[in-house]
Amino acid sequence: KVLVIGANGQIGSELVLALRKKHGADHVIASDINAPVDAIRNGGPFEIANVLDKNSLQHIFELYRPTQVYLLAAILSAVGEQKPKLAWDLNMNGLIHVLDLAVEFEVKKVFWPSSIAVFGPHSPKQNTPQYCVMDPNTVYGFSKLAGERWCEYYHAKYGLDVRSIRYPGLISWKTNPGGGTTDYAVHIFHEALQSGTYQSFLSANTALPMMYMDDAIRATLSLMDAPDECITIRSSYNLGGISFTPEALAAEIKKQIPEFTLTYADNDPRQAIADSWPQSIDDTYAKTDWDWKLEYDIERLTSEMLKNLKNSLVL
Ligand code: VAH
């Protein structure tokens, strides 16, 4: 049995779909604090639970005795700055509850997402390496940095096989992102199709590491399928994707929607968050340890997003 906690989220919902395909729908238990979102509703078992309520989680572990657990529940960077104490509490204690339950119930493998948000203003901006100065200045960023330390600790101390990826900004169409700084790269596609114009909250030349969701899901399953002895990183693997600016993404959209226009808001609080992050990532360890290869460049990502949103949006 595979348990996905935070199944309603942008990543969680896509992991549920991919894991149902891989293991069979009946073997995947989706869980979140609210009822299932459209993307995963009626496709398999679903349990309501609150990651801050360890008993509600324990009940699910007792009921299903999962052999794998994916913990995707988190508060992201922008919302985390509006609710710093809740973000720390949920991102930290949610993880520790799950790590403890995983040890107690002898779960074979645990996945937990980190982020390029663990890097900060003094980290190298280009080709940011796996190991370097990390001074994240968002609650989300340092909660993920601390979470990486906890994951490495539970592996070293209890032998728990917990694995993690520092995701770049993720772009997808099935489920909306929830309160991140990279969300502009999703909203822009909806607006390009619905109104023909979008006002970016990040400035024209703000380059960030991004990735199409299909690549991120494939990376996650590749990491989780890799033999234990191949895993040399027990904090969290850098994963780079493609780096682009809002201006470059708009230019790609204009190739398919020539009349699309992009404007820019100024002094949005998310600009300072983006400016504290790397512009590109070195993911050599992912390539070496579990043969990572990217498949979606900005052109293919743009085509996929516009094609799929055209079919799913009521325009
Ligand atoms: C966020 N989408 O914007 C997340 C992610 C690298 C960005 O961690 O907060």
UniProtKB/TrEMBL annotation:
InterPro entries the UniProt entry points to: Epimerase_deHydtase (IPR001509), NAD(P)-bd_dom_sf (IPR036291), NAD(P)_epim/dehydratase (IPR051225)
Superkingdom field: Bacteria
SUPFAM superfamilies linked: NAD(P)-binding Rossmann-fold domains
NAD-dependent epimerase/dehydratase domain residues: 2-240
One GO process term, biological-process aspect: L-threonine catabolic process
GO-annotated molecular function: L-threonine 3-dehydrogenase activity
Family affiliation: Belongs to the NAD(P)-dependent epimerase/dehydratase family.
Full protein name: NAD-dependent epimerase/dehydratase family protein
Organism this protein belongs to: Mucilaginibacter aquatilis
